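REQUEST
  id: r-88c1
  op: predict_structure
  target: Protein HGH1 homolog
  payload:
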Amino acid sequence: MPTELEELVGFIAHPNPQIRKLATENLVPYSAEQPSIFKTEELLPVKHLKFLIRDHPEIAEHALTILINLTADRSVLEYVATDDKFLGILLGNLVDPAEPNANLLAMLLANMVKWDDLKSLATRKQDPPSALQSNELVLNQLLDLFVKGADGTYNKKADFDYLAYVIADLSKHPEIRQFFVTKQEYDGVVPINKIKVFTEHKSDIRRKGVASTIKNAAFDVPAHPAFLDEDQIDILPYLLLPIMGGEEYDDEETMGMLPDLQLLPPDKQRDSDPKIVQAHVETLTLLTTTREGRELMRRVNVYPIIRETHLKVNDEDVREACERLVQVLMRDEAEPGAEEEAEDDGEDDRIVEV
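RESPONSE
  id: r-88c1
  status: 200
  body:
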């Protein structure tokens, strides 16, 4: 005989919307605590939940929350992420400026892109809503949504912060890294330039995802000249400002720094998350792969900033990252092997749970 919980799971497909609402609402906590109850009959309950994302907004909200939790399980993740029709519905709803559950859709997509085959988003297209002013490429729509949707400016019920984790995971794939450093014809903008401004955003989710995306994109060594060029990406201020506090430097050190980094107020706060600081330092290390990158960082006095970061951040991983960068910057160019040691981004293990 089925248990009471198993019977409740059966009600998520009930024709009466009030019963569906009660069932999904009461099942939300069990999706994290007892996910096995949704894995019966070859994942039939999950199939029903996928239909419910187009139901009444309150029912869709509960269904999405359950799916977000369930996709922490690899078998459920595969079942959801390989459903191309469902992916199309999700992406279409996500860019709708009137979608009430857009943040939950972004969270679910952040889990789904952990399925490696979703690197196919590199070429996927859909018609964009006129309000987004984007083109048909889904990647561009997600990026424009991330930028224009910050702080509820595109959809009053969403901030789209979790798209930061979507782009971070997608940027693990070489073909999508290439997208981030390639100027887009429809607006003439290099995608990395759209997101770099969020390295000091109030949302730690945005800052984490953007830091990881920039780091992943920096593995594309041929793009390093563009990263460092003031007239192209000009990434250094966006990496260095978040790792700087209100430290005082002597006049010689200060005058040699980039203009944006000089005369910061004494109450300037360093990013509070050591993982973000670590990501930025590791990105700087990646950008020392070329001699031009190393020489530029020496010329604009990156070393004193890293020295103070090493002193002020009480985190072993940050200190180790700082030490690796300092070793490269202080090395005589006659010595061989001045190469980066940073490894690929760690965001690929993040599963969103609510």
